[in-house]
Amino acid sequence: MIGEPSITTEKKTRIWGRILLYAMVKANKSFARDGARNTSFSSEI
Fold first, then answer.
1. What is the pTM of this model?
2. Fewer CB within 10 Å, N or C, the chain?
3. What pLDDT, on a 0 to 100 scale, did the predictor assign at position 21?
4. Residue 33: its pLDDT value, please?
């Protein structure tokens, strides 16, 4: 990272930010789906 121009570092952070955001959205969707499934199971019992 030392001696690297700030432009490339900025690009890397933007890419990583996008990856993290995408991962979080995917995780939230799967958690919501699991939560809905769990609630339906608990209401059935």
1. 0.49
2. C
3. 92
4. 77
Q: Could you give the residue ranges of the DSSP H alpha helices within the chain?
A: 6-44
* Amino acid (one-letter) located at 28: N
Q: In the block, which residue shows the tokens 């990272």? A: 1
Euclidean distance between CA atoms 8 and 1, whole angstroms: 10
Locus of tokens 């799967």: 30
Q: What percent of the chain has pLDDT over 70?
A: 67
- C-alpha distances (whole Å) from 10 to each of 3, 7, 15, 16, 45 are 14, 5, 9, 10, 52
